[in-house]
């Protein structure tokens, strides 16, 4: 069955964009997903991560295959390398005055690289290199919980408002329920069959919540895993040891899994002791992007670099279902279904990620003692796109909302390396400004990422180690209501650390 956008909105009212986005679209704002899948922080080899990901004007690294393919022209021998990454995330959440803490971690292959270098031909072409690499572009790891007492509303209020907006009568909601499977074909049908809502009068809208007691003790837990990764095929050429040019093609894979729960207990409940609401979402996708870059040695000690990477055009398929489990007071509700679920639904749409462009400069210390490098990276968040080929009106609404909420950003990166014989000492930083046009949940979402590392290089192999440290704030809204005073968000303080190792051999 093809999922409707109104249906999937029941699951994904999360992540910080406030009610006016979802309500104006009559469904989920997919710009949040485009942003989530697109925001790369620091990626690449341990060498490049240790220097803040500043590689627009640097070469001879497998990361050049997708960052600036011109850097492949600096290779004078072939290379095979692997980069494992170990990530940890600690999150402190604040909801209605109560604090909760969560932590999670994972390990993955951040990068694989095979570089095949060859001698040049003719008088200008000194060397060239062909690269095949695999890389993790975005890490979608999250894990947090929240708990607090809400004196203003229940998630049941959201259920009632959503059913009221839909405007169907209770007979229609009954018809959307399959008594043999205990599942509903729509989210509002699920709310109704789980006794969350009832018509105020008669059999149609408006709807109201059945349990009206306050306060409500609310707890929740959200976790996600996955990544956007890509295979790159790239080529770089060295012309006269002064000009370097490169091209790349990236084959993108998206893999995302999300599981969320929201539980409510009613200390003064008349009908319910409580209920538990869960969401389960899986997203898979594939696409392509293109890149081109150049590096120019303007003097013995200064190199300038620039590259541009097209948007990734990705086809995404989502599988989603939700459920409600109820705990009723004795002698109140008689039902054969303690748990009511939605049918598993599938929805396919097209995603366009931002265009990215970088420019940078590197100053090399005399005597080959090291260098300092810096980049400015443009990311066109306002140009992200979401489209459904079967619904041009909805696609236009999504595009308009993206332009209203996101602005283009210029990330700043700086890094340095100092050489002591075969030892390399590295340090770096990356600043990412807030990409929202207006502050959402009154939070500053800019990020400062600090990095450092050490490496060893011989004529036959290399080993590099890096640490990446990032603290940032986000927010999560369990549900939203027409009256913004009647619900709240969970403020999240995140501490993210990565430990990166690259090992490679020359041949």
Automatic annotation (TrEMBL):
Keywords: Signal. It comes from the Bacteria. Residues 1-21 form the signal peptide. The keyword Signal applies. This is Outer membrane protein transport protein (OMPP1/FadL/TodX). It comes from Emticicia aquatica.
């Amino acid at each position: 069955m093809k999922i409707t956008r109104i249906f999937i909105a029941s699951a994904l009212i999360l992540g910080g964009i406030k009610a006016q986005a979802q309500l104006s679209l009559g469904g989920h704002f997919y710009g949040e997903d485009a942003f989530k899948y697109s925001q790369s922080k620091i990626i690449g080899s341990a060498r490049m991560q240790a220097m803040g990901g500043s590689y627009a004007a640097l070469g001879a690294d497998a990361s050049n295959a997708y960052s600036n393919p011109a850097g492949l022209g600096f290779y004078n021998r072939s290379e095979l390398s692997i980069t494992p990454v170990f990530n940890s995330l600690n999150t402190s959440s604040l909801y209605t005055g109560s604090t909760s803490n969560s932590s999670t971690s994972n390990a993955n292959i951040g990068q694989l690289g095979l570089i095949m270098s060859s001698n040049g031909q003719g008088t200008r072409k000194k060397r060239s290199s062909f690269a095949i690499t695999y890389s993790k572009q975005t890490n979608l790891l999250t894990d947090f919980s929240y708990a607090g007492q809400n004196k203003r509303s229940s998630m049941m209020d959201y259920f009632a408002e959503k059913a009221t907006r839909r405007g169907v009568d209770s007979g229609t909601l009954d018809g959307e329920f399959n008594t043999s499977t205990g599942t509903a074909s729509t989210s509002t049908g699920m709310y109704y069959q789980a006794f969350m809502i009832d018509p105020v009068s008669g059999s149609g809208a408006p709807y109201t919540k059945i349990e009206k007691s306050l306060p409500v003790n609310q707890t929740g837990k959200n976790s996600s895993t996955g990544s956007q990764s890509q295979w790159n095929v790239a080529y770089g050429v060295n012309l006269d040891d002064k000009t370097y040019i490169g091209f790349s093609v990236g084959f993108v894979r998206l893999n995302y899994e999300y599981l969320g729960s929201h539980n409510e207990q009613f200390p003064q409940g008349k009908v319910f002791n409580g209920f538990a609401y869960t969401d389960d979402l899986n997203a898979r996708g594939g696409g392509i992007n293109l890149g081109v870059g150049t590096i120019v040695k303007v003097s013995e000690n200064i190199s300038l670099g620039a590259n541009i990477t097209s948007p990734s055009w990705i086809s995404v398929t989502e599988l989603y279902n939700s459920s409600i489990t109820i705990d009723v007071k004795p002698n109140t509700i008689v039902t054969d279904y303690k748990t009511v679920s939605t049918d598993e639904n599938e929805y396919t749409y097209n995603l366009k990620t931002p265009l990215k462009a970088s420019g940078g400069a590197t100053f090399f210390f005399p005597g080959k003692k090291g260098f300092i490098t810096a980049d400015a990276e443009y990311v066109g968040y306002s140009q992200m796109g979401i489209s459904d080929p079967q619904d041009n009106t909805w696609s236009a609404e999504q595009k308009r909302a993206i332009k209203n909420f996101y602005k283009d950003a210029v990330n700043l990166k700086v890094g340095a390396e100092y050489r002591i014989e075969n030892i390399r000492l590295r340090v770096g930083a990356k600043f990412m400004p807030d990409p929202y046009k207006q502050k959402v949940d009154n939070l500053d979402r800019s990020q400062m990422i600090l990095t450092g590392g050490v490496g060893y290089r011989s004529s036959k192999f290399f080993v590099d180690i890096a640490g990446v440290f990032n603290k940032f704030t986000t927010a999560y809204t369990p549900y939203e209501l027409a009256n913004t005073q009647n619900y709240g968000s969970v403020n999240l303080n995140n501490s993210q650390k990565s430990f990166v190792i690259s090992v490679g051999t020359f041949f």
